[in-house]
């Protein structure tokens, strides 16, 4: 039985999996698990301590959160916000038929808002200038190595008791800022993380409490606060804003694939970042929403005929 629980009816249609999916860092993310009954488990750190949260959608218009651990009460109290309660799409104008159709077909796509800045920042820094697979491998290695077992039952245990799913492995809570700051250089090397990215994380960890203040700032002020950190630029800020702030306009300028994806999805050609920013002006205020809707609808982008970002094994250096 959960230590704290809450069931509610969201004020907008909400699809649980679509909404919370962006916070997962690859299929092997130790802090995130989806089990056979459709529930999604997440390990996080609140101001009160670590928590395991089980999110479920027992009916189309009903959401539920169960939580365990020192941060359980806080995690349940903020669950509706995490699952997009504050995301208001009423002012969104799709403008063209392709986006209108994607919007119509995905009415429950809300924008997640965890409120956890440093939690979103670390894996985003790991994703800087490397292929996604490398970043996910590094995240998995480091969380298993320096994180801790999440409180409460293992994912799937409750469902298994009712015959709905097989028990899963226990979740891991990512390290605290203090623990990230103490990761030895050789462990970063074992994880395949180069000195520039490891220095960026270690430095950010020293100012984690100040970075958390960005969650209550305007998007402009939040971006300015984050970019005070060496190694944190506009792409990193946008990726954090998408997850921690639920910013519907956070366009990841500088992404290796995004400009060409949008260029081909909407205009049938390659685009530079500057051209993408100019072309997306009609959707100002909802540019992240456009990207999410196109992806959810399976809209294809640029054909895979050009070079991909190379695999760079920093452990060999």
Q: Could you explain how this protein is built, in words?
A:
This protein has 317 residues and is an alpha+beta fold. The chain has one domain (4-245): Endonuclease III, domain 1, CATH 1.10.340. 41% of the residues lie in helices and 12% in strands. The protein is built from 16 helices and 7 strands. The chain has a 5-stranded antiparallel beta sheet. The protein has a two-stranded antiparallel ribbon with strand order 6-7. Strand 4 and strand 5 form a beta hairpin. Helix 4 crosses helix 16. It is globular and about 45 Å long.
Report the sheet with the most strands, covering strand number, pairing sense and barrel closure.
5 strands, antiparallel
From the spread of the alpha carbons, the general shape counts as globular
Can you count the beta strands?
7
CATH fold-level name: Endonuclease III, domain 1
H and E order: EHEEEEHHHHHEHEHHHHHHHHH
- What is the CATH H-level superfamily? Hypothetical protein, domain 2
By CATH reckoning, the class would read: Mainly Alpha
Biggest sheet strand order reads 1-5-4-3-2
> Which regions contain 5 or more consecutive residues with pLDDT less than 50?
161-167
**CATH-scheme architecture:** Orthogonal Bundle
Catalytic activity: Hydrolysis of alkylated DNA, releasing 3-methyladenine, 3-methylguanine, 7-methylguanine and 7-methyladenine
GO cellular component, one term: cytoplasm
EC number: 3.2.2.21
Keywords: DNA damage, DNA repair
